[in-house]
């Protein structure tokens, strides 16, 4: 079943669409221009628009409409051509109000239930291979709740902290302490934490320890507070894992071949990941597919890049986000299909893996 424009607009979340009162003729010509430019990659002239739109209009009339669209900032004229290309503002209006998303022909293979890390890696590869652009998956947010904590003495004033989450995930951290704790003291500290705080979130444990510090021996209290701090850092670092696949696909995109600065900025985005994490994290707050277009804001710092993203779930709870990163001139209807289906496949695989 096809998604008509109105349905697609309701489906896509997080719009910053320009509020413009375009007449039907202007809307159709803008829609046609964007579709032709996405398909061909060439500036679109009035003669091409006349043929592709099916409107019985004179070239002069079409040029007048294009001039109006240009004044509104929806299209622009490259210096080397008489044709026009969409701007970021034009793309935004197109994807929010004019896009018709149709089901693709080939259904991607199901992702096998497995360890979360393997499901995520496979999903990134799947997104990349289906889109022929870059696939990104933000790893599932880990729970900040611990089931068990243990200390292992490595050497004088050097300990290994072992934190086991309710799902069996294990985080290890090395602690350097001012005090050289005996094995008996390490057992005392771990027993206290496990007896009183198992099943609680790390932040709750930190608050409770502050209240109970007076009742505990000073050295033991310091050790437990250091453990909670390290545990919190371990959990927050686990939140920031992003798996990226297919970066090299951008090398073959004609939109970047003539602009090494844009390509370099794109690879910086993949390398540093901070902005990418922030972008994907904002996607997890909305339902359904979101589209971020470079050039319309600082959300996507590379002008010629767009991101199509969607959250995925485990047992009905949103735990992460995935998406496709490609040129602004991408087939958005197809990317929406790919991202939406892959999000469902990841949700199913992770939920089944947990059940198993």
Task: Provide structural commentary.
This protein is α+β, with helices and mostly antiparallel strands and 356 residues long. The chain folds into three domains: 5-97, Orthogonal Bundle (Arc Repressor Mutant, subunit A); 116-139 and 241-355, Beta-Lactamase, CATH 3.30.450; 148-239, Heat-inducible transcription repressor hrca homolog, domain 3 (Enolase-like, domain 1), CATH 3.30.390.60. Helix content is 48%, strand content 17%. It contains 13 helices and ten strands. It has helices spanning 5-11, 24-40, 46-53, 59-71, 88-97, 116-131, 183-197, 202-212, 218-239, 254-257, 260-272, 274-283, 332-355; strands spanning 75-76, 85-86, 134-138, 148-155, 158-164, 170-176, 242-245, 290-293, 305-314, 317-327. The strands form three sheets. A five-stranded antiparallel β-sheet has the order 7-3-10-9-8, sandwiched between helices. Strands 4-5-6 form a three-stranded antiparallel β-sheet, with helices on one face. A two-stranded antiparallel ribbon has the order 1-2. α2 crosses α4 (59-71) and α6 (116-131) packs antiparallel against α13 (332-355).
Topology (SSEs and partners):
Elements: H1 5-11, H2 24-40, H3 46-53, H4 59-71, E1 75-76, E2 85-86, H5 88-97, H6 116-131, E3 134-138, E4 148-155, E5 158-164, E6 170-176, H7 183-197, H8 202-212, H9 218-239, E7 242-245, H10 254-257, H11 260-272, H12 274-283, E8 290-293, E9 305-314, E10 317-327, H13 332-355
Antiparallel strand pairs: 1-2, 3-7, 3-10, 4-5, 5-6, 8-9, 9-10
Helix pairs in contact: 2-3, 2-4, 3-4, 6-13, 7-9, 8-9
